[in-house]
Amino acid sequence: MTRSIFFWILAFCMMSCGTSNPISAVITADTTVFSVTSSGMTAYSVNGVDNPSLTLKRGSIYTFNVNAPGHPFYIKTVQSSGTGNVYSSGVVGNGSSTGPLSFDVPMNAPATLFYDCSLHAAMSGAINVVD
Fold first, then answer.
1. Are strands 31-39 and 91-92 parallel, antiparallel or unpaired?
2. In a domain? residue 9
3. Helix or strand holding residue 5 (H, E)
4. Contacts for 26-31 with beta carbons within 8 Å, 24 or more apart?
5. How confident is the model at residue 13 (pLDDT cuts 50, 70, 90)?
6. C-alpha separations of 50 from 9, 10, 108, 120, 125 in Å
7. What's the domain count of the chain?
8. Residues 81-130: pLDDT tens digits?
9. Does the predicted model carry a pTM greater than 0.85?
10. Is residue 20 part of a domain?
């Protein structure tokens, strides 16, 4: 008896909901995490390597866990110190020196970006963006 009531309720819900309110699933992408520290005023150490070139994929999400007090970490369109040419599409936390910077790489991101310290020109590296 209980089973038949369940099926009647299920059938009623399916008919009354129709297709105008489909159930949607939330799909989360994997996030790649980088550890970013400073090597004095001469380099960012990313996962233990000084100023490496990084390859990031469009449509992927990356978190840079920055622990470099006094060295604001920016993603930029031009390799330079200062705060000009900041790339902001998909970026949350640009300029962080302690804390996360999240980068959800958009499909229209340029092929080359840079990570830079706004205060020290030697603390910089290329970001190659691929499909």
1. unpaired
2. no
3. helix 2-17
4. 29/59, 29/60, 29/61, 30/60, 30/61, 31/61, 31/62, 31/63
5. very low
6. 62, 59, 28, 14, 9
7. 1
8. 999 999 999 999 999 999 999 999 999 999 999 999 999 999 999 999 99
9. no
10. no
